[in-house]
Amino acid sequence: MSETENACFFYGTLMSFKVLSRVIYRTTDPDPWLFQDLQIKEAILHGYCRHQVRFADYPGIIAEAGKSVKGMYVTGLRDMEIRRLDTFEGDEYTREVVTARLLNPDGTEGEDVQCSAYVYRDESNLIKEEWDFDAFVAEKLHRWVGASKEYDEVDQIDPTGGRQWMTVASIGARKVVEVAVQDELKAAV
């Protein structure tokens, strides 16, 4: 897969753009150029059920015949962003290739798409009730978008403090400035 062909199906806290941004960009309010390659569409994953994880704010999905999970299909994720997501999800989840179905604007089902989804490993740690995204947003999202210990491990992936994005964007500009300064120094001699 190329650097921007990674696709994931998100069904829990990562359906919130603020949480997704905090994980992959280290900020809840990223500059638009950071996410210009992301495409986000509503989707459904058949054959799985979303359950509340015991003593946690987030859900896990497990295979369950006759059930379906609505979520978000996100394409354009870079390899570094996938590494951050893997770290964020930790060893509670396994990233697996699944087939989701896109939802049309009118709510009908559209085309099938292959993508990754984070499937919960320990079914015994799930409460057999549906996790509610709207309740999460209303009652708990604020705890997930600030300076939280939840992100410490993810933040360790990039010791530059998020500056690797700026480095990529500014290399060309820096070279132009370096050449101009060198030319100025030569002219002064």
UniProtKB/TrEMBL annotation:
CDD domains: GGCT_like
One Gene Ontology molecular-function label: transferase activity
Gamma-glutamylcyclotransferase AIG2-like domain span: 8-125
Organism: Sphaerosporella brunnea
Protein name as it appears in the record: Putative gamma-glutamylcyclotransferase
Recorded family membership: Belongs to the gamma-glutamylcyclotransferase family.
InterPro entries associated with the record: AIG2-like, AIG2-like_dom, GGCT-like, GGCT-like_sf
Heme is among the record's keywords: no
